[in-house]
Amino acid sequence: RPRSHTVTTTSSSFTANLSASSSTLAYDREFLRTVPGLLMVTEIVLGLLVWTLIAGTEYFLYPAFGWVMFVAVFYWVLTVFFLIIYMTMTYTRIPQVPWTMVGLCFNGSAFVLYLIAAIVDASSVTKDLDNHNYNSWAASSFFAFVVTSCYAGNMYFSFISWRSRTLQ
């Protein structure tokens, strides 16, 4: 008498999820055409300018410029990170994170710390310190205030977004 063989196959949910998520990598080009997207790109470009203008000098001799460097590099890296998150629409794949609140806290802290750094930068620029670095430090101070205003604008848009989500 012939024996009956039953074969059962199963698939891993990990491989199913991996293939589904990797094939649907989104790219939101329209984000760069919005005001928050343009502000974010401006923050990245001018923030890079702030810290490169200072990094090209002997800033390490003056602790105030070390603080400005820390703030500029820290928020530059985080802003690039958030731009990637928004451009790839990663926030839609992680709905457990309150992205509107995260954006509001990020932009609010960036505004406050960049404002402090810009004031410290501007008050530390004197011709008495070092004539060789004066122009770089003065330019970094100007661009630090411009980046601060960009973070203020993004904080406003983050607040509007957060406010509209909490009222729903």
UniProtKB/TrEMBL annotation:
Lineage: superkingdom: Eukaryota
GO BP, one annotated term: myelination
Domain MARVEL as annotated: residue spans: 31-163
Keyword terms of this UniProt record: Membrane, Transmembrane, Transmembrane helix
InterPro entries, sorted: MAL, Marvel, MARVEL-CKLF_proteins
Main location: membrane
Residue stretches spanning the membrane: 31-54, 60-85, 97-117, 137-157
Membrane topology: Multi-pass membrane protein
GO cellular component: membrane
A Gene Ontology molecular function term of the record: structural constituent of myelin sheath
Family matches, as PANTHER family: CKLF-LIKE MARVEL TRANSMEMBRANE DOMAIN-CONTAINING PROTEIN 8, MARVEL-CONTAINING POTENTIAL LIPID RAFT-ASSOCIATED PROTEIN
Protein name, entry field: CKLF8 protein
Organism annotation: Loxia curvirostra (Red crossbill)
